[in-house]
Structure formats: structure tokens, C-alpha cells
Amino acid sequence: MKLPVSISENLILLQNGVKIPASKIRHPVINEMLDNGILKKQVQGRNKALIYLSEQKPLNDFLQNHYGITDLQKYINSLKNSNLTRADAVAVSSNSKLKKIRTFKGFLINCYHSIQASINGKTIQLTPIEGVFQFIYDFESFIIPHDVTVIGIENPENFRYIEKQKYLFGDLQPIFVSRYPQNQNKDLLKWLQSIPNKYLYFGDFDFSGIGIYLTEYKKYLGDRASFFVPENIENHFEKYGNKELYDIQKITFDLQSIQDENLINLVEIIHKHKKGLEQEIYHIINPKAITKHQI
């Protein structure tokens, strides 16, 4: 159990000699302090009472024994600090779980060409290693060359086998980012918004995939974002398309808002064949079946 900020701020007022109406400082911990004589109540008339503090030491002892708090102001500042670490939380309250702290931030990257980048002001070389992904933690300082295209991959299997899909992106200098784990996706979007690079979304070719692209990326990245549509994709719909994807999915986006001709054509193909096409097919398909990509 933690001491709420509002109660902590009122306790600071009490420490400074302020008397607070009982109606404005209601909380079980206040009742406990009153029962133990740490705080005092001054009754004024029938329905009004003031809470005040007569001695500092009993309050200090109570806060330290029950909450590990030795400095109320530092405790309040820590709760309001968006960059609070677990170590800081232990220091001010002896409790690493004082506040919900997200220590595992960042996102996964992958590549099949070596890329020189920088992080925290230091130059690093992103080198592809089969079976190994890299995780960018301090993404706020992660910088890649302007001519590198960021390719977002919807499904983990495609992210794993990017080497087998390089035929799709032959004329690009790509770096691949994964939409999963999905709880990292907000960090990925923050990073994408902070850089000038183009973003190409490679997802499933169905209404769900298009919806993810429009609501999670296009909405925030504008003209820098585009949806990847392989050449000859209609042939792949005929051979590998899944009718169930068409039957169970609903359009959750405004068709009239789509300006991208490739995406409009894709929607027409989906309706024409009444199928969806999952992106996993592209890491096992014959590369000769595709000659170029469309952005």
C-alpha cells in the first residue's frame, strides 16, 4: 500500500502548522493517525472539525515505520516523476513497487545489410546475425541515416526471416522493426515520429492489416508512411488467398479517406477475390514471381 499524493501534500501542510478541515482530508490512514494520537482533531460547532499536528516526531516515525518514508517532499516528487526508477522508489519509500514503472521500454530491430547508426551520441554498427535480433532500449537517442527506409513488419515470423524476403526490397536500404511485442508499439511510434525517415508497413493483405496501418501508423506519420504492396499480388491472392479472412473481417476504416492508389487497388483485389492474403507466404514464395516493390 502506498500513501496517496493528495494525502502526502496535506500532511506537509499539517507539518507547516496549517489546520485542515476534516472533510477535506478523509482517508483510512488519517483515521489511523487520529486513533493513535498522531494527529489531533479540533471540533468547531456541530458539523465542523479541523485536523492539526501538534508534534512532528510521531508523524515522522509513523511514516517511516509504515511506508519507509523519511522525507515527504522527496516522496511526493518521486511519485510525480515520470522517469522514476525502481532504485529511486526504494530510496524514498523502501518499496520498488511504489509506482508502476515501465523498465522494459524500446523495440526490436533487424536488418540484412550492415547499417551505421548512433545511440546516446555514440556510433554503432548494426550488423545482421542469423537468428539474432537487436533490442533498442534508449530509442529516444537512436538515429539512423536519412536514406534508410524503416520497414514495419506485422507478424513475428516474417520479422524472423527477413533474409528470405530481401528480394522484395532490392532497391532499398532497409531496417526492419517489429510490431510485436505489442506493448512496445507506443515506443516504436514515438521513435518513428521523431525521425524524418520513410516508413513502409509490411503487414497482412486484408482489412485487418490495412486497418492496423491506417490507425496505428498512417494517422500519425502522414505522407512519410506507405503500405507495402508487392508486384503481381493478385496472382498470389488467387493461389494463396484465404476466404475465411474476408468472411470474418469487417472494414473498420473510412475507404473514402484512402488516397494511396496502391492501397485502393489492394482493397479492390480483396473484394474481387473475396479473400485475404497473409504476409507469411512471402518468405517461402518463389522470388522470381515478384520483380519489384511498390511504395
Short description:
Helix content is 36%, strand content 18%. It has 11 helices and 13 strands. The protein has a 6-stranded mixed β-sheet. Strands 1-3-2 form a 3-stranded antiparallel β-sheet.
List keywords for this structure.
295 residues; alpha/beta; Dna Topoisomerase Vi A Subunit, Chain: A, domain 2; six-stranded mixed β-sheet; three-stranded antiparallel β-sheet
Question: How are the SSEs ordered, and which strands pair?
Answer:
Elements: H1 5-15, E1 20-21, H2 28-35, E2 39-44, E3 48-53, H3 56-67, H4 72-80, H5 86-93, E4 107-110, E5 115-119, E6 122-126, E7 134-136, E8 149-153, H6 156-160, E9 174-178, H7 185-194, E10 199-202, H8 207-221, E11 225-227, E12 229-230, H9 233-240, H10 243-248, H11 261-273, E13 293-294
Helix pairs in contact: 1-4, 4-5
Can you walk through the features of this model?
This protein has 295 residues and is an alpha/beta fold. The chain has 2 domains: 5-93, no CATH class; 107-294, Dna Topoisomerase Vi A Subunit, Chain: A, domain 2, CATH 3.40.1360. 36% of the residues lie in helices and 18% in strands. The chain is built from 11 helices and 13 strands. The strands form 4 sheets. A 6-stranded mixed beta sheet has the order 7-4-9-8-10-11. The protein has a 3-stranded antiparallel beta sheet with strand order 1-3-2. A hairpin with a 3-residue loop joins strand 2 (39-44) and strand 3. Helix 1 packs antiparallel against helix 4 (72-80) and helix 4 (72-80) runs antiparallel to helix 5 (86-93). The longest helix has 15 residues, at 207-221. It is elongated and about 85 Å long. The relative contact order is 0.09.
